[in-house]
Structure prediction request, 544 residues.
Amino acid sequence: MNADEIDAQIRMLAAERRLPPSHLARWLAMDPASRAAMLDIARVIRLRTGQLMTALETLEEIAVREHVTAAGVLGRPEIRRIAGGPGSAPSRASALLEALRTLRYPLLKKMQEQIRSEVSALKLPRGISVVLPKELGSDELTVSLRVRSAAELARLLEALDRSRTGLTRIIEMLGGKR
Amino acid sequence: MKFDLDAVLVEHGCAGSALATRILRALPRHVPVTHVADNETREATRPASGARDPFGAGKRRMVIARRKTPFLMPCHAGSSRFACCGYLVLTLASNCPMDCSYCFLQEYLADNPAFQVYANFTDSFDELDRLIDNARGRSFRVGTAELADSLAFDSITSISRDLIDFFASRENLTLELKTKTDEIENLLGRDPRGRVLVSWTLSPAAVYRSSEHLTASPTARIAAARAVLDAGYRVAFHLDPLIAYPGAERDYLLLIDELLDTIAPKQISFISMGGLRMTPRLRGAARSRFPGDPMLCGEDVLAADGRFRTFTPLRLNLYRTLADRFRKAGAEIPAYLCMEAASVHESVFGAAPSRPAIIGNRLARD
Prediction:
């Protein structure tokens, strides 16, 4: 396909998906290779409107951050594996967005994984939940207990006390001390 | 004049004012001057219809007008959510000829982007006198850089001279002139009598090159700070916005080293830090005007205050690293964080922030 044919296909897909004009303009503003690569992946994994918008926005931001083209990002092995891999189109679409988000927020993703693994390592009993701030947008850790008896409360408080060191470490991680 | 103007509009009632006379005398001949009726001034400050970048065009259209609302007000960043430094704002101009990609004025002045200077600015002196009369014994730090750079057009307005003379004679007031320029000619040779503090926003070279268009280089800002310090002024520095781009920690530490090589820690009145923060509307406006600026695509997430900020552990770690570097420099430089919660202050500095009045008093006197 030549560039005009690719643009026509993009417009057609955008119309089918009712993509907002601002996002269509973003897509068409990409370099020719990126426009084509985006069209290819949007078709292969049948991105829905919201997913298409998120993918376009995230790709654009990765391209600016890393001084690369969207085609360069979509050509990376981890993205190609998702595009050409097994699984349903919806699951591959979710995996694609997650992979793009990992590229867009590399340190955040790494930090979230580290903290989640610290939380898992605490092996807290059922009844205690530890909730991290959304996207680590604050330094506040929420720890909640769900109990139905005094004995259960005592057991959970003891478990919490045993986890004091680990919880302290998590709070310090949220505060950027580790 | 270091910055270009496309036009100057003078409100009829201000045509004979001292400020208009000064500006018109210093203005290059090629800049057209138009007089507008007093009731047309508001329209003259609006975004230019048809301009590809109305905000950018507004920066190059100077409007000399009479300010009809008070000049003095509390800093708009103050809020019960954040620890506050007790800064008071004196609005003598609105908008800035420089063009930083992250600047909040892109949102704040989107509907009236013309560069306004207020011909009746000396009326603000009455407001300041009333302030100190009503709060005897207290000291106040008053700055002119909330909606404008304090010195950007000083070569044609010379407002700094009037301000320095006024503040030099008021024991309980400290003037803060905050800038990203090296326009200090009007300051040299005047005696501020310890009542004037000149402060610079400092960013690493990577941020300067990518985001701080038409500003003086970081090295030029530090050199200007040295010059005003030698001329009897106090100096302070704002690491704000701190931008957590890849390599930021190393670059900010090098910047601090460069600063401390030129100015001894004990000669610095205070340091402020503040992470880049953007409302969704500002973020959209900034990215639309500067689509290729990687500094606007950091690892920012929507925080509880409705602003995009660098995710918390990364932001706090950067604050703490820089605060430690200043601490290790051997002098206790007063420092505060701008638009951060008290808990963040405590986490970074190891102590809760004082009340705004106390911080304001201390920063004004130290």
